[in-house]
Amino acid sequence: MNPSTLSRADLVRELLAPTFRDFIQTTPHMGEHETAFEGAAANDCALNRKLDAARELLLRDLHTQMCMGSVMNSPQALRDWLRLHCANLEHEVFLVLYLTAQHQLIEAVELFRGTLTQTSVYPRELVKGALARNAAAVVIAHNHPSGHAEPSHADEHLTQTLKSALSLVDVRVLDHLVVAGSQVVSFAEKGLL
């Protein structure tokens, strides 16, 4: 099941569907050992499907919330969306949120994908994306699979490079967020922007 392809109704139906354990308790003819083995595997699978459906519903609701007004007016929604989107990935991803002049979300794009410890980021692609969407500002973000949210010197250098490249076409970088587990570190809040 790929939750991103399901409708909202299908996701809710998946959340409300009975688990295998519920089915077993209402089926009188299954043996005890057979039930224990099949039940554990089926329940794990059902639980994972339910968690994936819940995560997708939350991602969609937070995305809608970010589209309704200025992304910067609801920083908690942005942080929650980023945590759900990339906090537990085993590889780095680099995300760009393209924004209007009023800082409303045009589109959130996973622009680059890397390895466990690094992602190659090309300023040209970021500028191309901003121009194609007629963006006035961006928020950039990436995750640290290591679990350490503190920005590295390479992260700081990259931010300044992207800020310079985007300023040439009158696009502002509002923030750079680093996600690691449940932590989200803001360059703007740390005075690094």
SSE diagram, text form:
Elements: H1 8-16, H2 20-25, H3 32-68, H4 75-86, E1 93-99, E2 105-113, H5 123-132, E3 137-143, H6 153-167, E4 172-180, E5 183-186
Parallel strand pairs: 3-4
Antiparallel strand pairs: 1-2, 1-3, 4-5
Question: How would you characterize the overall build of this protein?
Answer:
With 193 residues, the chain is an alpha+beta fold. It folds into 2 domains: 61 residues; 116 residues, Cytidine Deaminase, domain 2 (3-Layer(aba) Sandwich). 46% of the residues lie in helices and 19% in strands. It has 6 helices and 5 strands; from the N terminus they run ααααββαβαββ. Strands 2-1-3-4-5 form a 5-stranded mixed β-sheet, with helices on both faces. Helix 1 packs antiparallel against helix 3, helix 3 runs antiparallel to helix 4 and helix 5 packs across helix 6. The radius of gyration is 21 Å and the shape is globular.
